[in-house]
What we know:
Oligomer: single chain
Radius of gyration: 22 Å
Number of helices: 14
CATH superfamily of the largest domain: Type I PLP-dependent aspartate aminotransferase-like (Major domain)
CATH topology of the largest domain: Aspartate Aminotransferase, domain 2
Mean pLDDT: 96
CATH architecture of the largest domain: 3-Layer(aba) Sandwich
Amino acid sequence: MTTSSFLPPQRTLMGPGPSDVNPRVLSAMSRPIIGHLDPVFVGMMEEMKGLLQYAFQTENALTLPVSAPGSAGMETCFVNLVEPGDKVIVCINGVFGTRMKENVERCGGTAVVVEDDWGNPVSPDKVADALKGNPDAKILAFVHAETSTGARSDVETLCRLAREHDCLTIVDSVTGLAGSPLYVDDWGVDAIYSGTQKCLSCTPGLSPVSFSQRAVDRIQARSHKVQSWFLDLNLVMGYWGGGSKRAYHHTAPINALYALHESLVILQEEGLENSWARHCRHHDALRAGLEAMGLEFLVAEEHRLPQLNSVYVPEGVDEAAVRGELLERYGLEIGAGLGPYAGKVWRIGLMGYGANERNVLTCLSALEAVLADRGVVEPGRAMAAARAAYARMDATGSTG
């Protein structure tokens, strides 16, 4: 049997990630490979750090892409900052807060859980109570943009509370970076991780991270070795540190880093605030169309991520069958619900390059057609509502 080259179908990716990738990013990946210690590549690494600092809005020297996906960025933060016996307050309002708790426990720490219902943001009042009740806590960990629901938590307020109690913060912004306002320095974030496959519209496989000087001091003062050799920042910085001389640590994913560099250049060209505004604009049109079909959102408007939209499945509809038909008939991918919302919601992504009018209208027309075939919506309303929303925004000059 002869196996031929794999040729994937063309999809429109509007699930929780990965997102559609800018053709410039795909083109960058095909550029000639050079050595990971080549002086030219080292120069690109320095540019990459500056571009990531812009995306995170930070001057942190320890800002770099981990050579692995967002889950490894999460582990990088926890294995470097949590030592055996440390007490960590972990906020859980979805799947990814639960993963934070798992990381704390695997590092030998003790997790104090602050729990909120899925679809709600992390409660600052509950966090304040937990900090008061656990004065020996060393870290507060929470998710900025909860991918499992589309809920956005108040990073600035939560970090301020942590500072008041001399706690470091670990923040998950895998879905937040470049899609929603994020000011690492101004908000006092100590450690943060993200992913390349969401609002940066790059290919999966890298995890941008950034650490404050307070976090670096904690890492350097550890009494135990970091449990992961590969993710030990004391070693990684020998490769990603400043200057032209780099110590070999691992063979970097060179072409993937070309892609991230290009995606960050594109972000810089657009402007970070313009990227945030674009996500809001297309969310507003998508929201108008979804609501015109009678679909309801899981997350309240004031806490909703524009880039990740969770909507309830109409009663009596087989949500998996709808997703399957969208993929087969229209080449459109949307996401299923997780945890308590499995089978109850769809998660519709509007991320990065995919946050555009064509994708919004494609999604609405396809979803409306599939639901109309099932007799649960009236055709024609969604597209009209979305176009009216765009017209209103264009007339008023607003972004949402």
